[in-house]
């Protein structure tokens, strides 16, 4: 049993080192990326279980509180980065489907970001239009809370997850190298050079 666990640990470390080189990260940074979601979940679970911190653990999950606002911030940042990559790849005459891949992912992330904060409704203080309020389970300016979708939006998560898996699957193929991280970084640096010289 110990030999199997040790072998798994070695294989995992080798895979993380390989990805660290591919994404031009330090080995420590790659491990942090892998472990952070797991550790964050366990910390939150401990906070939820302990009576003195249970209220805080539930508070961070409420609407317009840390988890939702951070989800919005990271999704919006990802959407902006995806849009920039799509534009850069287009200027470099990459295949249309490569540009479309990043553009669609950017739009998907923008949709997630907007829906997460009701398209800024609570920040800007605008009322939900009556036709939308009539069919929205929470009376918000959102699509995922419309009757029929409210509580049943697994399709959004499934389609986005499948898109990510598709990107990973084609990145290693010869015809899919333009969506590989190294190519994206190369395109970013080439675009910066062309912009600065132009």
Overview of the structural elements:
There is one protein chain. The radius of gyration is 21 Å and the shape is globular. It has helices at residues 2-22, 27-49, 51-59, 66-91, 96-116, 121-124, 130-135, 154-171, 181-197. The protein has nine helices and no strands. The chain is mainly α and 198 residues long. It is 73% helix and 0% strand.
Count all strands and give the number: 0
- Count, helices: 9
Principal-axes geometry comes out as globular
* Through-space gap between termini: 61 Å
Secondary-structure element pattern, one letter each: HHHHHHHHH
Percent of residues in helices comes to over 70%
What is the alpha-carbon Rg in Å? 21 Å
Main structural class: mainly alpha
The percentage of residues in β strands lies in under 5%
Biggest sheet details:
none
Mean of residue pLDDT values: 79
Low-confidence stretches: 181-198
Tag the structure with descriptive keywords:
single chain; 198 residues; mainly alpha; 73% helix; globular
Set down the secondary structure blueprint:
Layout: H1 2-22, H2 27-49, H3 51-59, H4 66-91, H5 96-116, H6 121-124, H7 130-135, H8 154-171, H9 181-197
Summarize the structure.
With 198 residues, this protein is mainly α.
